[in-house]
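User: Okay, second chain of the day. Same drill as before: sequence in, structure tokens out.
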Amino acid sequence: MKFSAAVLLFINLFTLQAAPAADPETLIFTNVNIVDTRSGNLERNMTVVIKNGQIDGIAKVGLIQESRKIRVVNANGKFLIPGLWDMHVHSAGGSAPAWDEKIIYPLYIANGVTGVRDMGGDPALLEKRREHIERGQVLGPHMVLGGPFLAGGKSDSQTIAVNNPAEGRQAVVTLKNRGVDFIKILSNITRPTYMAIAEEARKLKIRFVGHVPDTVSVEEASAAGQRSIEHLTGILLACSSREAELRQQRLDALAKKDFKSYSENEMQAVSTYNSVKAHHLFVELTDNNTWQVPTLVWDSADAHIGDPDPPDELKYVPASVRKQWDPAKLLSATTPEEMAAKKELASRYIELAGAMHHADVPFMAGSDGPDPFVVPGFSLHEELELLVQAGFSNAEALQTATFSPALFLAKLDHYGVIEKGREADMVLLDGNPLEEIGNTQKIVAVIVRGKYYPRGELDKILSGIEEAAAKE
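Assistant: Same drill. Structure tokens below.
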């Protein structure tokens, strides 16, 4: 990648003729190591020019003199990655209460998460919050919104009830007209309704994602055009040598609201895992480009509620929410045997993700925060570590939160890579994430929408969040 002559001339003239200004109009990183998230390679000792919120040029060039209109950051020994994306959050509702927007959204930025895919909540609140961020009233990430869930049962502020095919089709039309970025479905949808939603979504050219209902096989969902499967729902069942039998048992348990038997059913799927069936399934998912967002960190957090030494980042969780996360309360109806099963399943999901990745099934990173002990921002880094544990290379894990989300969203011309013309959303690190994925947490600075937040400023943001959270 090279500067055009015009860009080089611009830098030289700008340095010589800079006029006084309150804030630098151009930000330049020198001597920085760029992580190429397309190839997984490293470009050493580069200069990156940021102007008007975009990457204006990248090259190997000499020293550039700082002026009042140019801020130069000597990033010698540092590593620059694209801003991270968390592809499964619920920032304004979902199963968790809505956090104050001035707590949850800056928490993402402080952790280098410059984009989120919000998977459902109060649509009016989500749209209002996104507007606040875009206007600069709240510091926060770019947001891709799905609006309310589609689910069986009754409608509420976060859900559109779809109990038959006609309701399913109408819901797709309603959400398309509302301008949502995608449609999210939940598990309790009948098979005819699911197929009607899939057909209408194809007709209107809007993506649908979410859970795979127990009335539909994973193969059918993939063939129907479901673009992403969340939490690996239905995958273990689809890999079982007793799939048909276990599916019926699962449906019977759900009809009786017998969630204990449902969990036991998933364990039976583990014990009857068939590698030949799994291989055929993974090939089909790969061929259909059906993405997976496994949210391994959610399973891990759920399986370790009550463990000693709670994470330090809990201090950024609103006090009212921390009360709801009380381990004694959360575990009051859970037996030791059930907790052991949760830990076993969490481990199996990690193995399953690794097997699917080995078969080239596409993945994106998502946390499902802020569910209990899944703290926004921090949890995405934990997800990346779990993906490496599953068998992803450091580069591949990093891609699931950078290049892959941009590819999935058809926004590679905006995000996901550090290339000229892209949005200036980046994270400067004090360690090479290609050598150790945990280095994504060694944040020196965050750049979002072209604005530079060095470590000292990020620490002030976190201190403010901690103070506000204690009062919430």
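The first strand starts at residue 26 and ends at 36.

User: Thanks, on to the next one.
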